[in-house]
Design a protein that fits this description.
This protein has one domain: Up-down Bundle (Growth Hormone, Chain: A). The longest helix is centred in the middle third of the chain and has 30 residues. Helices cover 75% and strands 0% of the residues. The protein has 18 helices and no strands.
């Protein structure tokens, strides 16, 4: 069956709503992000190890919940309501932290927020796939990611410009504003524009027929999907703590300016993430997924090494531009590669959760490792360790991962039929 045969007719209204939703979710999808570490470090005198430990609880919950929540996204038709509820919960847990900035309160808020936040990316990807179909999904995923990063840059610019006058409170104000915008955008997506079977990865001739493998068997039976999961874990192990480490380093060396420097780092990265994600969406079908993904590994390994050459704020913020290359490409290509390898299974979102679980293991392990390295060996040792992990992941990906675009590799679930 051709891609054209499984592509719904264009729906400009639905796609405009997806555009605004991708933009508005930029400040909600990951909660307070790196600002939380800076807030706890500078406003409440937490040390790096305590911050890493408190945030690891939410990370662990996110790890174990991704596959079950992916199954939920596959099963539930009320995807708009699911996304709206997630926005409300993540925002509420972020606003609780200033009221109770204590270890167990922060840890509990992180756990609840992680459960809600974990549903956002797969739900948005599912809605997008259900609206545009497989033929246009790579372009749509790239557009979603580019708009997400554009929104993130715009919001961080507002924080950068207003933090000297408003203080830390602006971070929480922006959470409320973007949450309200996200809820409005969700209501603008027409419910009847989403093909709920395509949204879970089913093809028209397989909808409602035959036995489908479980999400974990979908992952374990596919060598390419396993390689993608394991190398992605190494990427996230190297990438996860880097922005927080840079922000902490700048906050400690420039007291009172931590929020502004964190915003500057985020803006630097986001300005590159927008064109990187757009490039991935525009060229992934023509160039293939593999070369673009490899560029992300190279940028990450180089970034970790360059952080050790100077402590000057201009240098650290400049190197942060490389974060835009890696994160922009990875964010745009992740759902596309999973969709390539799960076509016909009906488990697109659950497989995103299963692969994301493996990826999250890397991020969680790195939080503890980096906290230990910073306390005992310093920031330079931590950055070099993360750079080495990125280089190892890129080498494995280069050697073992096949190209997944249509015509290069038969999707795993179709091989099994």
């Amino acid at each position: 069956m051709s891609d054209a045969a499984i592509s719904p007719p264009p729906n400009p209204r639905a796609e405009r709503a997806l555009d605004f939703l991708s933009f508005a979710l930029s400040d909600v999808r990951y909660g307070l992000g790196a600002y939380l570490a800076v807030y706890l470090l500078t406003e409440h005198a937490w040390d790096e190890a305590s911050i890493g430990l408190a945030l690891s609880f939410g990370g662990m919950v996110g790890l174990v919940s991704q596959t079950p929540l992916g199954i939920l996204v596959d099963a539930i038709r009320a995807k708009r309501a699911l996304l709206g509820c997630a926005v409300v919960v993540v925002t509420a847990t972020s606003l609780v932290i200033p009221l109770a900035p204590h270890f167990w309160a922060v840890a509990a808020a992180g756990v609840i927020g992680a459960l809600a936040g974990t549903t956002m990316s797969p739900t948005l990807a599912a809605m997008s796939l259900g609206i545009v179909g497989p033929a246009r999904f790579a372009h749509r995923a790239g557009r979603n990611e580019a708009l997400f990063h554009f929104g993130n840059a715009a919001i961080n610019l507002v924080i950068l410009l207003t933090a000297p006058f408003v203080g830390t409170a602006i971070v929480f104000v922006m959470m409320v504003v973007t949450a309200a915008a996200s809820l409005w955008a969700v209501t603008r997506v027409p419910a009847n524009a989403i093909d709920y079977e395509l949204a879970r990865g089913l093809l028209p001739d397989r909808q409602g027929h035959g036995h489908r493998p479980s999400p974990w068997s979908t992952l374990l039976a596919s060598r390419p999907l396993m390689i993608f999961a394991l190398t992605g874990a190494l990427f996230h192990m190297a990438n996860g703590p880097m922005l927080a480490l840079v922000a902490q380093r700048l906050a400690l060396s420039h007291p009172g300016q931590g929020i502004m420097f964190t915003a500057a780092c985020a803006i630097a990265a986001q300005t590159i993430m927008v064109p990187a994600a757009a490039l991935a969406g525009a060229r992934a079908d023509a160039w293939g997924r593999k070369p673009l993904f490899l560029v992300a590994f190279v940028a990450l390994a180089l970034r970790g090494s360059l952080y050790t050459l100077s402590d000057h704020p201009a240098w650290l913020i400049g190197v942060q531009l490389l974060d835009g290359v890696g994160a922009g490409l990875i964010g745009a290509l992740f759902p596309v590669i999973v969709a390539d390898l799960t076509t016909g299974s009906g488990h697109f979102n659950a497989a995103q959760g299963a692969v994301g679980t493996v990826h999250a293991i890397g991020g969680i392990l790195s939080g503890t490792l980096v906290g230990f390295l910073v306390v005992n060996a310093g920031y330079h040792a931590a950055f070099l360790a993360l750079s080495s992990i990125a280089a190892a992941g890129g080498l494995i990906f280069l050697i073992a991962m096949p190209e997944t675009r249509v015509g290069s590799t038969v999707p795993m679930v179709l091989q099994a039929k």
